[in-house]
Protein backbone atom coordinates (compact mmCIF):
# COMPACT_ATOMS: atom_id res chain seq x y z
CA UNK A 1 0.00 0.00 0.00
CA UNK A 2 1.29 3.47 -0.79
CA UNK A 3 2.54 5.65 2.02
CA UNK A 4 -0.02 8.43 2.12
CA UNK A 5 2.35 11.00 3.52
CA UNK A 6 4.33 10.62 0.31
CA UNK A 7 1.34 10.48 -2.04
CA UNK A 8 1.14 13.31 -4.55
CA UNK A 9 -1.48 15.86 -3.55
CA UNK A 10 -2.87 15.90 -7.08
CA UNK A 11 -3.54 13.01 -9.38
CA UNK A 12 -3.92 14.35 -12.90
CA UNK A 13 -5.88 12.57 -15.60
CA UNK A 14 -2.62 12.02 -17.49
CA UNK A 15 -1.36 9.79 -14.64
CA UNK A 16 -4.00 7.10 -15.27
CA UNK A 17 -2.88 4.09 -17.30
CA UNK A 18 -4.56 4.38 -20.71
CA UNK A 19 -4.29 0.67 -21.54
CA UNK A 20 -5.88 -0.38 -18.24
CA UNK A 21 -8.74 2.06 -18.64
CA UNK A 22 -9.30 0.93 -22.24
CA UNK A 23 -9.50 -2.69 -21.03
CA UNK A 24 -12.10 -1.72 -18.44
CA UNK A 25 -14.33 -0.11 -21.01
CA UNK A 26 -13.87 -3.12 -23.30
CA UNK A 27 -14.89 -5.44 -20.45
CA UNK A 28 -17.69 -3.46 -18.79
CA UNK A 29 -19.00 -1.23 -21.59
CA UNK A 30 -19.49 2.51 -21.87
CA UNK A 31 -20.19 4.86 -20.21
CA UNK A 32 -18.37 3.60 -17.15
CA UNK A 33 -17.36 5.17 -13.84
CA UNK A 34 -14.03 3.92 -12.49
CA UNK A 35 -12.95 4.56 -8.91
CA UNK A 36 -9.54 3.83 -7.44
CA UNK A 37 -9.97 3.04 -3.74
CA UNK A 38 -6.24 3.21 -3.13
CA UNK A 39 -6.30 6.86 -4.17
CA UNK A 40 -9.31 7.52 -1.89
CA UNK A 41 -7.26 6.17 1.01
CA UNK A 42 -4.24 8.27 0.06
CA UNK A 43 -6.38 11.40 -0.05
CA UNK A 44 -7.80 10.58 3.37
CA UNK A 45 -4.37 10.04 4.92
CA UNK A 46 -2.98 13.28 3.50
CA UNK A 47 -5.90 15.27 4.90
CA UNK A 48 -5.73 13.46 8.24
CA UNK A 49 -2.02 14.30 8.44
CA UNK A 50 -2.84 18.01 7.97
CA UNK A 51 -5.59 17.89 10.63
CA UNK A 52 -4.19 15.43 13.19
CA UNK A 53 -6.37 16.78 15.99
CA UNK A 54 -9.68 16.70 14.09
CA UNK A 55 -12.54 14.26 13.91
CA UNK A 56 -12.96 13.63 10.20
CA UNK A 57 -16.32 12.73 8.75
CA UNK A 58 -16.77 11.88 5.08
CA UNK A 59 -19.62 13.77 3.36
CA UNK A 60 -21.32 10.76 1.81
CA UNK A 61 -23.12 12.85 -0.80
CA UNK A 62 -19.90 13.18 -2.83
CA UNK A 63 -19.88 9.46 -3.63
CA UNK A 64 -22.10 7.07 -1.69
CA UNK A 65 -20.77 3.82 -3.12
CA UNK A 66 -20.59 1.26 -0.31
CA UNK A 67 -16.98 0.41 -1.17
CA UNK A 68 -16.01 4.06 -0.60
CA UNK A 69 -17.82 4.23 2.73
CA UNK A 70 -16.16 1.00 3.87
CA UNK A 71 -12.68 2.13 2.79
CA UNK A 72 -12.98 5.51 4.50
CA UNK A 73 -14.40 3.95 7.66
CA UNK A 74 -11.41 1.61 7.73
CA UNK A 75 -9.14 4.66 7.49
CA UNK A 76 -10.91 6.18 10.50
CA UNK A 77 -13.55 8.48 9.03
CA UNK A 78 -17.03 8.99 10.42
CA UNK A 79 -19.86 9.57 7.94
CA UNK A 80 -21.85 12.76 7.41
CA UNK A 81 -25.19 11.97 5.82
CA UNK A 82 -27.61 14.33 4.09
CA UNK A 83 -30.66 12.08 4.08
CA UNK A 84 -32.21 9.04 5.70
CA UNK A 85 -31.11 7.08 2.62
CA UNK A 86 -27.50 8.04 3.20
CA UNK A 87 -27.77 7.08 6.88
CA UNK A 88 -29.12 3.73 5.76
CA UNK A 89 -26.12 3.30 3.47
CA UNK A 90 -23.74 4.29 6.28
CA UNK A 91 -25.21 1.70 8.66
CA UNK A 92 -25.19 -0.93 5.90
CA UNK A 93 -21.48 -0.21 5.41
CA UNK A 94 -20.98 -1.19 9.05
CA UNK A 95 -20.94 2.22 10.73
CA UNK A 96 -22.17 2.43 14.30
CA UNK A 97 -24.47 5.26 15.35
CA UNK A 98 -21.58 7.09 16.99
CA UNK A 99 -19.84 7.36 13.60
CA UNK A 100 -22.83 8.92 11.88
CA UNK A 101 -23.96 12.54 11.73
CA UNK A 102 -27.24 13.17 9.99
CA UNK A 103 -27.47 16.75 8.67
CA UNK A 104 -31.15 17.57 8.30
CA UNK A 105 -31.78 20.19 5.59
CA UNK A 106 -35.52 20.91 5.41
CA UNK A 107 -35.96 17.22 6.22
CA UNK A 108 -38.97 15.44 4.75
CA UNK A 109 -41.23 13.89 7.41
CA UNK A 110 -40.41 10.48 6.02
CA UNK A 111 -36.71 11.04 6.74
CA UNK A 112 -37.32 12.25 10.30
CA UNK A 113 -39.65 9.32 11.03
CA UNK A 114 -37.02 6.85 9.87
CA UNK A 115 -34.17 8.63 11.67
CA UNK A 116 -36.02 8.69 14.99
CA UNK A 117 -36.94 4.99 14.63
CA UNK A 118 -33.31 4.18 13.83
CA UNK A 119 -32.05 6.27 16.75
CA UNK A 120 -33.82 3.84 19.09
CA UNK A 121 -31.29 1.19 18.00
CA UNK A 122 -28.42 3.62 17.54
CA UNK A 123 -28.69 6.11 20.42
CA UNK A 124 -25.21 7.54 19.68
CA UNK A 125 -26.36 8.97 16.35
CA UNK A 126 -25.93 12.76 16.03
CA UNK A 127 -28.59 14.89 14.36
CA UNK A 128 -27.64 18.31 13.04
CA UNK A 129 -30.63 20.64 12.76
CA UNK A 130 -30.59 23.85 10.76
CA UNK A 131 -33.79 25.46 12.01
CA UNK A 132 -35.82 25.76 15.19
CA UNK A 133 -38.78 23.99 13.74
CA UNK A 134 -36.65 21.02 12.75
CA UNK A 135 -35.84 20.77 16.46
CA UNK A 136 -39.57 20.97 17.23
CA UNK A 137 -40.29 18.25 14.69
CA UNK A 138 -37.65 16.02 16.29
CA UNK A 139 -39.16 16.67 19.73
CA UNK A 140 -42.64 15.89 18.39
CA UNK A 141 -41.33 12.45 17.43
CA UNK A 142 -39.85 11.86 20.89
CA UNK A 143 -36.24 12.57 19.95
CA UNK A 144 -34.10 14.06 22.71
CA UNK A 145 -30.75 12.57 21.67
CA UNK A 146 -27.50 14.13 20.50
CA UNK A 147 -28.21 17.46 18.84
CA UNK A 148 -25.89 19.71 16.88
CA UNK A 149 -27.02 23.11 15.61
CA UNK A 150 -26.20 24.20 12.08
CA UNK A 151 -25.60 27.93 12.06
CA UNK A 152 -25.40 30.49 9.31
CA UNK A 153 -22.33 32.65 9.95
CA UNK A 154 -23.10 34.94 7.02
CA UNK A 155 -20.04 34.19 4.95
CA UNK A 156 -19.78 31.74 2.07
CA UNK A 157 -17.24 30.52 -0.49
CA UNK A 158 -17.07 27.88 -3.20
CA UNK A 159 -16.48 27.20 -6.89
CA UNK A 160 -19.92 28.42 -8.02
CA UNK A 161 -22.71 30.50 -6.51
CA UNK A 162 -24.95 27.40 -6.42
CA UNK A 163 -22.67 25.69 -3.92
CA UNK A 164 -21.91 28.59 -1.56
CA UNK A 165 -23.82 27.81 1.60
CA UNK A 166 -22.32 29.76 4.51
CA UNK A 167 -24.39 32.89 3.83
CA UNK A 168 -27.36 31.31 2.02
CA UNK A 169 -30.62 31.84 3.91
CA UNK A 170 -31.58 28.23 3.28
CA UNK A 171 -28.90 26.89 5.60
CA UNK A 172 -28.67 27.11 9.35
CA UNK A 173 -29.94 29.31 12.13
CA UNK A 174 -28.49 32.86 11.97
CA UNK A 175 -25.40 32.68 14.17
CA UNK A 176 -26.63 35.53 16.39
CA UNK A 177 -29.62 33.41 17.45
CA UNK A 178 -27.60 30.25 18.16
CA UNK A 179 -27.21 30.79 21.93
CA UNK A 180 -30.96 31.26 22.44
CA UNK A 181 -31.84 28.25 20.31
CA UNK A 182 -29.30 26.02 22.04
CA UNK A 183 -30.36 27.17 25.53
CA UNK A 184 -33.92 26.33 24.67
CA UNK A 185 -32.95 22.91 23.25
CA UNK A 186 -30.90 22.11 26.35
CA UNK A 187 -33.86 23.13 28.58
CA UNK A 188 -36.05 20.75 26.60
CA UNK A 189 -33.73 17.85 27.36
CA UNK A 190 -31.77 17.54 24.13
CA UNK A 191 -28.17 16.46 24.51
CA UNK A 192 -26.52 19.51 22.93
CA UNK A 193 -23.18 18.32 21.57
CA UNK A 194 -22.01 20.70 18.87
CA UNK A 195 -22.31 23.55 16.45
CA UNK A 196 -21.89 23.16 12.71
CA UNK A 197 -21.54 25.16 9.54
CA UNK A 198 -20.39 24.53 5.98
CA UNK A 199 -18.95 27.49 4.06
CA UNK A 200 -19.55 26.00 0.61
CA UNK A 201 -17.97 23.53 -1.76
CA UNK A 202 -14.81 23.70 -3.83
CA UNK A 203 -12.96 26.38 -1.88
CA UNK A 204 -9.80 27.28 -3.81
CA UNK A 205 -6.53 28.95 -2.85
CA UNK A 206 -7.85 32.38 -3.86
CA UNK A 207 -10.75 32.03 -1.40
CA UNK A 208 -8.69 31.19 1.64
CA UNK A 209 -9.37 34.61 3.19
CA UNK A 210 -13.11 33.94 3.14
CA UNK A 211 -12.52 30.51 4.65
CA UNK A 212 -10.34 32.06 7.37
CA UNK A 213 -13.06 34.58 8.22
CA UNK A 214 -15.59 31.74 8.26
CA UNK A 215 -13.65 29.62 10.76
CA UNK A 216 -12.88 32.71 12.85
CA UNK A 217 -16.61 33.39 13.18
CA UNK A 218 -17.19 29.75 14.14
CA UNK A 219 -14.45 30.02 16.76
CA UNK A 220 -16.02 33.15 18.26
CA UNK A 221 -19.42 31.51 18.33
CA UNK A 222 -18.03 28.36 19.95
CA UNK A 223 -16.53 30.45 22.77
CA UNK A 224 -19.80 32.28 23.29
CA UNK A 225 -21.84 29.08 23.33
CA UNK A 226 -19.43 27.39 25.75
CA UNK A 227 -19.76 30.31 28.17
CA UNK A 228 -23.48 30.81 27.94
CA UNK A 229 -24.91 27.37 27.24
CA UNK A 230 -22.26 24.94 28.38
CA UNK A 231 -19.46 22.76 27.08
CA UNK A 232 -19.58 21.57 23.52
CA UNK A 233 -18.18 18.26 22.43
CA UNK A 234 -17.26 19.47 18.94
CA UNK A 235 -17.25 22.39 16.52
CA UNK A 236 -17.86 21.16 12.98
CA UNK A 237 -16.63 23.56 10.29
CA UNK A 238 -17.92 21.48 7.40
CA UNK A 239 -16.08 20.49 4.24
CA UNK A 240 -15.44 22.36 1.03
CA UNK A 241 -11.74 21.67 0.40
CA UNK A 242 -11.27 22.27 -3.31
CA UNK A 243 -9.31 20.14 -5.73
CA UNK A 244 -7.64 21.29 -8.97
CA UNK A 245 -9.79 20.47 -12.00
CA UNK A 246 -7.66 22.36 -14.54
CA UNK A 247 -4.49 20.62 -15.66
CA UNK A 248 -2.28 23.53 -14.55
CA UNK A 249 -4.09 24.43 -11.34
CA UNK A 250 -2.18 24.17 -8.06
CA UNK A 251 -3.54 21.99 -5.26
CA UNK A 252 -5.18 23.61 -2.24
CA UNK A 253 -2.76 24.83 0.39
CA UNK A 254 -4.00 22.37 3.00
CA UNK A 255 -1.46 23.40 5.63
CA UNK A 256 -2.61 26.98 5.47
CA UNK A 257 -6.29 25.97 5.79
CA UNK A 258 -5.44 23.72 8.73
CA UNK A 259 -3.34 26.41 10.39
CA UNK A 260 -6.08 29.04 10.02
CA UNK A 261 -8.62 26.60 11.44
CA UNK A 262 -6.43 25.76 14.42
CA UNK A 263 -5.84 29.46 15.11
CA UNK A 264 -9.53 30.29 14.89
CA UNK A 265 -10.51 27.59 17.34
CA UNK A 266 -7.46 28.25 19.54
CA UNK A 267 -8.63 28.05 23.13
CA UNK A 268 -12.05 26.53 22.50
CA UNK A 269 -12.42 23.48 24.70
CA UNK A 270 -14.13 21.33 22.07
CA UNK A 271 -12.95 18.97 19.39
CA UNK A 272 -12.61 20.21 15.83
CA UNK A 273 -14.70 18.27 13.30
CA UNK A 274 -14.46 18.57 9.53
CA UNK A 275 -16.53 16.83 6.88
CA UNK A 276 -15.01 16.92 3.40
CA UNK A 277 -16.45 14.95 0.51
CA UNK A 278 -14.88 16.02 -2.77
CA UNK A 279 -11.31 16.02 -1.45
CA UNK A 280 -11.29 12.26 -0.88
CA UNK A 281 -12.92 11.06 -4.06
CA UNK A 282 -12.67 13.62 -6.90
CA UNK A 283 -9.32 12.63 -8.42
CA UNK A 284 -9.87 8.95 -7.53
CA UNK A 285 -12.51 8.67 -10.25
CA UNK A 286 -12.75 8.91 -14.02
CA UNK A 287 -15.67 8.58 -16.39
CA UNK A 288 -15.01 6.62 -19.57
CA UNK A 289 -17.14 7.23 -22.63
CA UNK A 290 -17.13 6.00 -26.22
CA UNK A 291 -17.26 8.29 -29.22
CA UNK A 292 -20.20 7.59 -31.51
CA UNK A 293 -20.12 10.46 -33.99
CA UNK A 294 -17.62 13.04 -35.18
CA UNK A 295 -19.12 15.93 -37.09
CA UNK A 296 -17.58 18.91 -38.79
CA UNK A 297 -19.82 21.76 -37.66
CA UNK A 298 -19.62 25.35 -38.87
CA UNK A 299 -16.96 26.56 -36.41
CA UNK A 300 -15.87 23.48 -34.52
CA UNK A 301 -15.78 19.72 -34.61
CA UNK A 302 -18.50 18.10 -32.53
CA UNK A 303 -17.56 14.84 -30.89
CA UNK A 304 -20.67 12.91 -29.83
CA UNK A 305 -20.11 10.61 -26.87
CA UNK A 306 -22.44 8.19 -25.09
CA UNK A 307 -22.15 9.87 -21.67
CA UNK A 308 -24.08 13.08 -21.23
CA UNK A 309 -25.35 15.57 -18.69
CA UNK A 310 -27.37 12.68 -17.26
CA UNK A 311 -24.12 10.83 -16.50
CA UNK A 312 -22.04 13.79 -15.26
CA UNK A 313 -24.04 16.96 -14.76
CA UNK A 314 -21.33 19.25 -13.37
CA UNK A 315 -20.34 20.95 -16.65
CA UNK A 316 -24.00 21.65 -17.52
CA UNK A 317 -24.98 22.73 -14.02
CA UNK A 318 -21.97 24.73 -12.83
CA UNK A 319 -20.00 25.30 -16.05
CA UNK A 320 -17.47 23.07 -14.34
CA UNK A 321 -14.24 22.26 -16.15
CA UNK A 322 -13.26 18.58 -16.33
CA UNK A 323 -10.08 17.43 -18.09
CA UNK A 324 -10.65 15.19 -21.11
CA UNK A 325 -8.19 12.71 -22.59
CA UNK A 326 -8.41 10.51 -25.67
CA UNK A 327 -7.30 7.08 -24.45
CA UNK A 328 -7.36 5.51 -27.91
CA UNK A 329 -5.29 8.37 -29.31
CA UNK A 330 -2.77 8.00 -26.50
CA UNK A 331 -2.44 4.29 -27.26
CA UNK A 332 -2.04 4.91 -31.03
CA UNK A 333 1.46 5.01 -32.42
CA UNK A 334 0.52 7.95 -34.68
CA UNK A 335 0.59 11.48 -33.41
CA UNK A 336 -2.80 13.16 -33.82
CA UNK A 337 -3.31 16.74 -34.84
CA UNK A 338 -4.56 19.11 -32.10
CA UNK A 339 -7.85 20.74 -33.11
CA UNK A 340 -10.63 22.60 -31.27
CA UNK A 341 -13.45 20.22 -30.39
CA UNK A 342 -16.78 20.31 -28.63
CA UNK A 343 -17.51 17.11 -26.75
CA UNK A 344 -21.26 16.63 -26.47
CA UNK A 345 -23.59 14.02 -25.02
CA UNK A 346 -26.72 12.34 -26.42
CA UNK A 347 -29.24 14.48 -24.51
CA UNK A 348 -31.51 16.84 -26.46
CA UNK A 349 -30.32 20.04 -24.78
CA UNK A 350 -27.71 22.48 -25.97
CA UNK A 351 -26.25 22.52 -22.46
CA UNK A 352 -25.33 18.86 -22.79
CA UNK A 353 -21.64 19.46 -23.54
CA UNK A 354 -18.55 18.48 -21.58
CA UNK A 355 -16.38 21.14 -23.23
CA UNK A 356 -16.67 23.67 -26.03
CA UNK A 357 -13.92 24.33 -28.58
CA UNK A 358 -11.27 22.68 -26.48
CA UNK A 359 -7.91 21.93 -28.09
CA UNK A 360 -7.70 18.12 -28.08
CA UNK A 361 -6.03 15.50 -30.30
CA UNK A 362 -8.29 14.83 -33.30
CA UNK A 363 -11.00 12.35 -32.32
CA UNK A 364 -12.20 9.44 -34.41
CA UNK A 365 -15.40 7.47 -34.23
CA UNK A 366 -14.88 4.48 -31.92
CA UNK A 367 -12.32 6.24 -29.69
CA UNK A 368 -12.71 6.11 -25.93
CA UNK A 369 -12.41 9.33 -23.94
CA UNK A 370 -11.66 9.64 -20.24
CA UNK A 371 -13.16 12.53 -18.28
CA UNK A 372 -11.12 13.28 -15.19
CA UNK A 373 -11.96 14.26 -11.61
CA UNK A 374 -15.27 12.45 -11.92
CA UNK A 375 -15.15 10.69 -8.55
CA UNK A 376 -17.01 13.43 -6.66
CA UNK A 377 -20.60 14.43 -7.46
CA UNK A 378 -20.46 12.38 -10.66
CA UNK A 379 -22.55 9.24 -10.31
CA UNK A 380 -24.27 10.79 -7.28
CA UNK A 381 -25.91 13.44 -9.46
CA UNK A 382 -26.58 11.15 -12.42
CA UNK A 383 -30.20 10.89 -13.47
CA UNK A 384 -32.48 9.23 -15.99
CA UNK A 385 -33.56 12.22 -18.10
CA UNK A 386 -34.38 11.19 -21.70
CA UNK A 387 -35.04 7.69 -20.25
CA UNK A 388 -31.32 7.07 -20.09
CA UNK A 389 -30.25 4.33 -17.68
CA UNK A 390 -27.44 5.30 -15.31
CA UNK A 391 -24.02 3.77 -16.07
CA UNK A 392 -22.09 1.01 -14.32
CA UNK A 393 -19.33 1.64 -11.76
CA UNK A 394 -16.21 -0.40 -11.18
CA UNK A 395 -13.76 -0.05 -8.33
CA UNK A 396 -10.12 -1.03 -8.30
CA UNK A 397 -7.75 -1.55 -5.43
CA UNK A 398 -4.36 -3.26 -5.28
CA UNK A 399 -4.74 -4.55 -8.84
CA UNK A 400 -8.13 -6.04 -8.06
CA UNK A 401 -11.02 -4.83 -10.21
CA UNK A 402 -14.68 -5.46 -9.58
CA UNK A 403 -18.07 -4.28 -10.68
CA UNK A 404 -19.45 -2.20 -7.83
CA UNK A 405 -22.78 -1.23 -9.38
CA UNK A 406 -24.29 -2.67 -12.51
CA UNK A 407 -25.52 -0.61 -15.43
CA UNK A 408 -29.21 0.20 -15.30
CA UNK A 409 -31.44 -0.95 -18.11
CA UNK A 410 -34.40 0.79 -19.74
CA UNK A 411 -36.52 -1.91 -18.13
CA UNK A 412 -35.22 -0.77 -14.72
CA UNK A 413 -35.96 2.87 -15.54
CA UNK A 414 -39.54 2.16 -16.56
CA UNK A 415 -40.35 -0.40 -13.85
CA UNK A 416 -41.89 2.03 -11.30
CA UNK A 417 -44.36 3.12 -13.94
CA UNK A 418 -45.33 -0.44 -14.82
CA UNK A 419 -45.65 -1.31 -11.14
CA UNK A 420 -47.96 1.67 -10.56
CA UNK A 421 -50.14 0.47 -13.42
CA UNK A 422 -50.19 -2.97 -11.85
CA UNK A 423 -51.84 -1.44 -8.80
CA UNK A 424 -48.86 -1.93 -6.48
CA UNK A 425 -49.53 -0.82 -2.91
CA UNK A 426 -45.97 0.22 -2.17
CA UNK A 427 -46.43 3.86 -3.04
CA UNK A 428 -49.49 4.41 -0.88
CA UNK A 429 -48.77 6.41 2.23
CA UNK A 430 -47.97 3.90 4.97
CA UNK A 431 -45.97 3.89 8.18
CA UNK A 432 -43.22 1.84 6.60
CA UNK A 433 -41.18 4.74 5.19
CA UNK A 434 -40.96 2.95 1.82
CA UNK A 435 -38.52 5.47 0.39
CA UNK A 436 -35.80 4.29 2.73
CA UNK A 437 -36.74 0.70 3.43
CA UNK A 438 -36.81 -0.40 -0.19
CA UNK A 439 -34.44 -3.33 -0.49
CA UNK A 440 -32.95 -1.89 -3.70
CA UNK A 441 -31.11 0.53 -1.48
CA UNK A 442 -29.60 -2.01 0.84
CA UNK A 443 -26.99 -3.52 -1.41
CA UNK A 444 -23.99 -1.37 -0.85
CA UNK A 445 -21.07 -3.34 -2.23
N1 LIG B 1 -20.98 19.18 4.65
C1 LIG B 1 -22.13 19.71 4.21
C2 LIG B 1 -23.15 20.10 5.18
C3 LIG B 1 -22.35 19.86 2.83
O1 LIG B 1 -23.50 20.38 2.42
C4 LIG B 1 -21.37 19.47 1.92
C5 LIG B 1 -21.58 19.61 0.47
C6 LIG B 1 -20.17 18.91 2.43
C7 LIG B 1 -20.02 18.80 3.80
C8 LIG B 1 -19.05 18.43 1.54
O2 LIG B 1 -18.55 19.41 0.72
P1 LIG B 1 -17.24 19.10 -0.14
O3 LIG B 1 -16.10 18.83 0.80
O4 LIG B 1 -17.53 17.92 -0.97
O5 LIG B 1 -17.04 20.33 -0.95
N2 LIG B 1 -22.68 19.11 -6.39
C9 LIG B 1 -21.69 20.16 -6.17
C10 LIG B 1 -21.22 20.17 -4.75
C11 LIG B 1 -22.35 20.32 -3.76
C12 LIG B 1 -21.89 20.21 -2.33
C13 LIG B 1 -23.03 20.16 -1.40
N3 LIG B 1 -22.66 20.08 -0.03
C14 LIG B 1 -20.52 19.97 -7.16
O6 LIG B 1 -20.56 19.04 -7.97
O7 LIG B 1 -19.60 20.76 -7.18
Tell me what the structure shows.
- This protein is α/β, with parallel strands linked by helices.
- It has 3 domains: 38-281, Alanine racemase (TIM Barrel, Alpha-Beta Barrel); 283-405, Lyase, Ornithine Decarboxylase, Chain A, domain 1 (Beta Barrel), CATH 2.40.37; 415-441, no CATH class.
- The chain has helices at residues 18-28, 37-50, 66-75, 84-92, 109-121, 132-140, 178-187, 208-228, 254-265, 278-281, 314-318, 327-331, 410-421, 434-437; strands at residues 32-36, 55-59, 78-81, 100-104, 126-129, 146-152, 173-174, 191-196, 234-236, 271-274, 285-296, 301-305, 324-326, 338-344, 353-361, 368-371, 392-397, 400-405.
- The strands form 2 sheets. Strands 1, 11, 12, 13, 14, 15, 16, 17 and 18 form a 9-stranded mixed sheet that branches. It has an 8-stranded parallel barrel with strand order 2-3-4-5-6-8-9-10, surrounded by 5 helices.
- Helix 2 runs parallel beside helix 3 (66-75), helix 7 (178-187) packs across helix 8 (208-228) and helix 8 (208-228) runs parallel beside helix 9.
- The relative contact order is 0.16.
- It binds ligand LLP.
- The site of ligand LLP has 22 residues, from helix 10 and helix 11.
Radius of gyration: 23 Å
Structural class designation:
alpha/beta
Bound molecules: ligand LLP
Task: Give the % helix.
Answer: 25-40%
> Separation of termini?
21 Å
- For this structure, the CATH topology of the largest domain is TIM Barrel
Number of E-type strands: 18
How does the major sheet shape up?
9 strands, mixed
Strand content: 15-25%
Q: How would you state the average pLDDT, rounded?
A: 93
The CATH H-level superfamily of the largest domain is Alanine racemase
CATH architectural category of the largest domain: Alpha-Beta Barrel
Number of helices: 14
Count of discrete structural domains: 3
Give the uncertain stretches in residue-range form: 1-5, 439-445
- Report the CATH C-level class of the largest domain: Alpha Beta
The outline comes out as globular
Amino acid sequence: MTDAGASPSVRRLSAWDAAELQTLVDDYGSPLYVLDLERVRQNYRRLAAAFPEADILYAVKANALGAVLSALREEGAGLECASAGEVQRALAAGASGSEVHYTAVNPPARDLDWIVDTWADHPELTVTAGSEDTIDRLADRGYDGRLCLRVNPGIGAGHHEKVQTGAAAKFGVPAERAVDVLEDAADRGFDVVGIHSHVGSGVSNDQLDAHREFVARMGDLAREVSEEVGDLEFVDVGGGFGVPYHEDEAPLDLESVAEATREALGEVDARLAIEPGRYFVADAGVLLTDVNTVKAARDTTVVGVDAGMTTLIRPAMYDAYHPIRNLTGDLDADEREIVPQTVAGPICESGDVFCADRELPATERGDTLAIGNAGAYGYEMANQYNSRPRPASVVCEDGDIRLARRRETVDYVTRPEREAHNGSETDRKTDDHPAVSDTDNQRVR
